[in-house]
């Protein structure tokens, strides 16, 4: 799998470079990679189009990387920089491809391009390296653990959730809303149920934990599966589902969904 290949490449690079503390900052890593044999420059640059988040170009002798300085979220900027470093290390240096121009599409794990998936995996492994983050939590996927790792790594909550989910292997999903309206659905580890891309109900909004003033929760509520997903799939019918929702700045709300065998009825085969 391309994402896992990228993760392994990044974590191996950090070990080779002797990184043993968090956070890992992509611009520092770029300076560590730079040498007489391979000259690497990474700079912030204001792009004419906000659709372009990062560019990387080079050859066997060196590379230039430009990151859009207008990216407002520090976690997103770090992920973009790490993604472009992935292109340098996995694609430019071995001469797979010489230039990249990446936007939101390329940085999405749903974008079905093996090269971009490798770069996304590299970014995840670089910013949230499992050998260093494994000491911080028990590994369970809950908002408290995600917040702890996110802060330590200076990574976004979404990127942190993805990386932790790669290691956890249990089916889970993240749903993002803004002001109650659907934004994005991020299923992980063969999460087998689809959601309706609908606004949050009053009951769902009332269940949000406002983490601007409260602690990030460790708990999940057990709710009717149909409240969040189409409960039917070839793997069986979900009766209930585990749900944990938080409210963030700018009207954003993030919901974790998970299920296990206790939530299923009519299982036809193992998932």
From TrEMBL:
InterPro entries: IrrE_HExxH (IPR010359), Rad_response_metalloprotease (IPR052345). Pfam families: Peptidase_M78. Transmembrane segments: none annotated. Residues 57-135 form the IrrE N-terminal-like domain. This is ImmA/IrrE family metallo-endopeptidase. The lineage of its organism: Bacteria, Pseudomonadati, Pseudomonadota, Gammaproteobacteria, Chromatiales.
């Amino acid at each position: 799998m391309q994402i896992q290949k990228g993760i392994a490449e990044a974590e191996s690079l950090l070990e080779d470079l002797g990184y043993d503390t968090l956070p890992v900052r992509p611009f520092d890593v770029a300076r560590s990679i730079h040498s007489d044999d391979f000259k690497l420059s990474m700079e912030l640059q204001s792009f004419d189009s906000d659709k372009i988040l990062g560019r990387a170009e080079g050859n066997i002798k060196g590379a230039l990387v430009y990151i859009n300085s207008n990216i407002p979220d520090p976690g997103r900027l770090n992920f973009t920089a790490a993604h472009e470093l992935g292109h340098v290390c996995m694609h430019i240096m071995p001469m797979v491809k010489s230039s990249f121009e990446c936007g939101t599409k390329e940085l999405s794990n749903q974008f079905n391009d093996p090269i971009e998936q490798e770069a996304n995996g590299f970014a995840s492994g670089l910013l949230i390296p499992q050998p260093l983050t494994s000491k911080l939590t028990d590994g369970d996927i809950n908002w408290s653990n995600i917040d702890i790792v996110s802060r330590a790594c200076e990574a976004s909550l979404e990127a942190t959730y993805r990386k932790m989910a790669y290691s956890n292997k249990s089916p889970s999903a993240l749903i993002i809303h803004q002001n109650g309206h659907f934004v994005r659905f991020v299923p992980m580890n063969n999460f087998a149920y689809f959601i309706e891309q609908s606004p949050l109900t009053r009951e769902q909004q009332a269940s949000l934990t406002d983490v601007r003033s409260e602690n990030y929760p460790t708990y999940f509520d057990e709710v009717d599966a149909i409240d969040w997903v189409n409960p039917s799939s070839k793997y069986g019918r979900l009766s209930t589902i585990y749900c944990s929702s938080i409210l963030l700045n700018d009207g954003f709300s993030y919901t974790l969904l998970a299920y296990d065998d206790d939530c299923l009825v009519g299982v036809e085969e193992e998932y």
